Amino acid sequence: MADSKLYYFNTRGRAELIRLLYALKDVKFEDVRFDDTNKFEDFKPKTPFGSVPVLEVNGVFYAQSMAIARYVARELGLMGSSSLQTLKVDMIVDAITVDIFPLLKDIIWGATDEIKAAAKTKAGEVSKKTFTALENLVSGDYFLGSEVSLADIIIFTFAIEAMPVLGLAIDDYPKLAKIVAALQENENLKNYIANRPATPM
Amino acid sequence: MYFSRFNNLLRYIFALAQQDFEDIRFGDELKWEDYKPSAPFGRMPFLEVDGERFGQNGSIARYLANAFDLAGATDLEKLKADGVVDCIQKDIFNKFLSYFFEKVDEKKAIIRKEVIETTLEFYKKIEEQISGENTFLKSGLSWADVVIYNFHTDIYADRFDAIDLTPTPKLELIIKNVAQNEHIQNWIAKRPSTSN
Questions:
Q1: What are φ and ψ of residue A103, in 5° steps?
Q2: ipTM over 0.90
Q3: b vs e for B138-175, b when ≥16 Cβ sit within 10 Å of the residue's Cβ?
Q4: Looking at beta carbons, which residues of chain B come within 8 Å of A71?
Q5: CA of A90 to nearest chain B CA: how many angstroms apart?
Q6: Chain B interface includes A98 (CB < 8 A)
Q7: What's the pTM value of the predicted model, to 2 decimals?
Q8: CB-hemisphere CA count at 13 Å for B45?
């Protein structure tokens, strides 16, 4: 695949999912992180929509974290082997990123304690419904059976980053917990996580 | 059919591809409550293919676009289309949601202005990304064009002050290209009329 350059802040945030995909398959990419000399403000005018992460391929900039994640996953063979498998992966990814992610923002950044508490309750309810549905979609070791996909990676990052914020436990969903445990044992991911820059989020 | 205008996207894609589909609309005769337990994630729309059900509007749209050769000619074109779709369905649409969910009148008036500003700002950015003469992608018509048309015509229009497309002429061409497409026009002429 073409050499790619990922541009983002020095945080996990919306770029970590993409970094994990490359790590899982042990594929090199340039992981550009903004700092005092290389500033986001200077880069922003070059971005398609004013936001990051941005992936540069063959000199062209592409935006939107989930669009990039899907592209990278496809290049790395992590989107299933048929169009219906890809649809299954896509809908699982949407269930997390479209239905739940937006609710997390108010839990952390809500203007008042009441807003934060209400957001946490709502996110908890939606997550429980979603995770119950996801548990039923696991076909074997992973969502697609024996083949790992973007859907498994997104559950993995969600379990580690978001579930604690929501006060939920992945162990309540045994098949999903098994996926997370398997990925926690994956050598490539273990190495990457042990060596990545330590940042608060 | 709940929020019908928001759900035109999938039907436009089918129409464009001249593909038949069973357009099942819930309402008085067909009760959503009966289907909800077996719908993936308990929500509509969902697509049934060979007896298997798939949910999530955006994913279904992407699947159909790929099936009907409306997704882009290369993986990088697909990435580009996905990017602009997310820009509209997430970045712009999130502002819409804040407006719809705001209950306090003074705050609502402020957010209303922000919706119009946000839309204008992103329209200008999208304009710079357009690679075709009257299509978003260089290779031709794709679901990105349909998403743009659907947003401008069904979701934004009638709810907010009309946007002057003079500063974004290529975007205007995209919207016209979809609007004037005969398959889209045929579909619009024969679809059931709904109030929203």
A1: -75, -25
A2: yes
A3: eebbbbbbbbbbbbbbbbbeeeeeebebeebebbbbbb
A4: 75-76, 78-79, 82
A5: 5
A6: yes
A7: 0.93
A8: 21
